C-alpha cells in the first residue's frame, strides 16, 4: 500500500443482483467518497469509478466500474478502498488522517517513549489511540483529546501524550 493513498471506505458485499455493492464510507461527508474516484484496492491492483445509486442503512448502494454481476460484487466483500491523498480535502491544524498517525512514536511529556500508535478506534465517544510498547503485556489505550494528547507533530513524526495515572496492572 502506497503512503500517498488514504482509506476512504470499504465494500461490505453485493446489493441486489445487478452488480451493485454495499459501500461504507469513512469520509466526514459520506457521499463525498464518489468524488475521490478512482478508488483503489489496498495493493493498487484494481481501481474503480464510483456512482452512488442510493442511500441504504449503513452506507450506500453503488455501482463500481467493471463490476456487473452479483458474483463480482460478492467477491469484493471486505475490500478496503483507497483514494489518492491529493484528491482529499486539506484538514485544519487540529485534525488528522488516521493513516498519518499510525506508526508514529509516542512520548510522555518528559520525553520518555511510551510506544508506537498501532490503531485508532472510535466506538462513539471519541477517538482512542492504541499504543504498543515493548515490554508491556497489554496495549495502552489513550483518549485522543487535547488534554491527553497535547501535541501531534507530523513534521517531526512524533506524538506527545500525558496519560492519566495508571491504577495498577
Describe this structure in words.
By secondary structure, the protein is mostly beta strands. It has 2 helices and 13 strands. It has helices spanning 70-75, 98-101; strands at residues 5-15, 20-25, 39-40, 47-48, 50-56, 59-64, 80-84, 105-108, 113-122, 127-132, 140-143, 151-153, 158-161. The longest helix is centred in the middle third of the chain and has 6 residues, at 70-75. The mean pLDDT is 90.
**Stretches with pLDDT under 50, minimum 5 residues:** none
What class do helices, strands and sheet pairing give?
mainly beta
Number of strand elements: 13
Please give the order of strands in the largest beta sheet: 11-10-9-8-13-12
Shape: elongated
Descriptive labels:
169 residues, mainly beta, Elongation Factor Tu (Ef-tu), domain 3, SH3 type barrels, six-stranded mixed beta sheet
Ordered list of secondary-structure elements with their pairings:
Blueprint: E1 5-15, E2 20-25, E3 39-40, E4 47-48, E5 50-56, E6 59-64, H1 70-75, E7 80-84, H2 98-101, E8 105-108, E9 113-122, E10 127-132, E11 140-143, E12 151-153, E13 158-161
Parallel strand pairs: 8-13
Antiparallel strand pairs: 1-2, 1-7, 2-6, 3-4, 5-6, 8-9, 9-10, 10-11, 12-13
Short note summarizing the structure:
The protein is mainly β and 169 residues long. Helices cover 6% and strands 41% of the residues.
Amino acid at each position: 500500500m502506497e503512503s500517498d493513498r488514504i482509506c476512504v471506505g470499504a465494500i461490505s458485499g453485493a446489493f441486489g443482483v445487478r452488480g451493485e455493492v454495499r459501500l461504507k464510507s469513512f469520509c466526514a461527508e459520506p457521499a463525498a467518497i464518489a468524488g475521490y474516484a478512482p478508488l483503489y484496492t489496498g495493493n493498487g491492483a484494481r481501481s474503480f469509478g464510483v456512482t452512488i445509486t442510493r442511500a441504504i442503512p449503513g452506507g450506500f448502494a453503488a455501482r463500481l466500474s467493471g463490476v456487473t454481476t452479483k458474483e463480482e460484487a460478492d467477491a469484493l466483500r471486505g475490500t478496503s478502498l483507497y483514494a489518492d491523498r491529493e484528491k482529499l480535502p486539506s484538514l485544519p491544524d487540529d485534525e488528522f488522517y488516521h493513516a498519518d498517525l499510525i506508526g508514529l512514536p509516542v512520548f510522555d511529556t518528559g520525553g520518555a517513549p511510551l510506544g508506537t500508535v498501532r490503531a485508532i478506534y472510535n466506538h462513539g465517544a471519541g477517538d482512542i489511540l492504541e499504543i504498543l510498547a515493548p515490554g508491556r503485556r497489554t496495549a495502552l489505550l489513550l483518549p485522543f483529546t487535547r488534554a491527553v494528547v497535547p501535541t501531534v507533530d507530523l513534521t517531526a513524526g512524533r506524538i506527545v501524550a500525558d496519560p492519566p495515572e495508571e491504577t495498577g496492572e
